[in-house]
Amino acid sequence: xxxxxxxxxxxxxxxxxxxxxxxxxxxxxxxxxxxxxxxxxxxxxxxxxxxxxxxxxxxxxxxxxxxxxxxxxxxxxxxxxxxxxxxxxxxxxxxxxxxxxxxxxxxxxxxxxxxxxxxxxxxxxxxxxxxxxxxxxxxxxxxxxxxxxxxxxxxxxxxxxxxxxxxxxxxxxxxxxxxxxxxxxxxxxxxxxxxxxxxxxxxxxxxxxxxxxxxxxxxxxxxxxxxxxxxxxxxxxxxxxxxxxxxxxxxxxxxxxxxxxxxxxxxxxxxxxxxxxxxxxxxxxxxxxxx
Length: 291
Ligand code: SF4
Ligand code: SF4
Prior knowledge:
Elements: H1 3-8, H2 10-22, E1 27-29, H3 37-43, E2 51-56, H4 61-75, E3 81-84, H5 90-95, H6 97-108, E4 114-119, H7 122-130, E5 137-141, H8 154-166, E6 170-174, H9 186-194, E7 201-202, H10 209-219, H11 225-232, E8 238-240, H12 249-253, E9 259-262, E10 265-268, H13 278-282, E11 288-290
Parallel strand pairs: 1-2, 2-3, 3-4, 4-5, 5-6, 6-7
Antiparallel strand pairs: 8-11, 9-10
Helix pairs in contact: 2-3, 3-4, 4-6, 7-8
Bound molecules: iron/sulfur cluster (2 copies).
């Protein structure tokens, strides 16, 4: 769920998560930076057999201990899978080696089920392959248009993931709807991921029960006429994530003059925005979502 939604609607968040569990969704993705541990932990009470992934930018052993303790304290449960967030290449991974080796030690001791990386870059996936003995799982961006892949295209990413898959690394696809920018082509987005036999799991963001039910139908290939009306009938707008660096690339790309930088962050004027999604294509940090 997008940040704004769950912060304003805690009750909706709790009921949506438990509804998802009751429908068989068994993998939940969070991260230290998302700042939602407490709420997610509350929502997952009574659903102990689902898996939780979390991520942090840990570099040292102490960072890992701090991150895991924080997750445990706030969620009141352990994360099953701990990933190093936003790894860009083998060089980035090298810089996080102390944390990665320590995570593997925790796994050997039975304190963690799996570890690995999350990335938006082909270089990150290739880097993981170089350290395949230390990586159980890669979580990477993948969608039919390649939106959000910062150093290549969809084919490059597919090839890199296939290599990991053939080395028995678990593969998790994220942003299959391109952060909401591919909602107009939702059938195509789901048809694309359904044929990928080298991805073990997908993460799909949903905002309410209707969308969740629709996504489950789509992922199972049970496409019906009302699918599109669920998507089209909703009022959508652009949301800027808190990790926006204020680089201004989106401002230059927006021909509607709908984005400006305010207090070092991008801000969107909803009246001017026509939801063309061009800004998302230039954002290096995937900070622009359609919600
Ligand atoms: S391009 Fe992305 S990171 Fe840069 S200002 Fe726009 S939203 Fe923020
Ligand atoms: S979606 Fe299009 S109109 Fe809206 S802010 Fe982005 S580039 Fe501008």
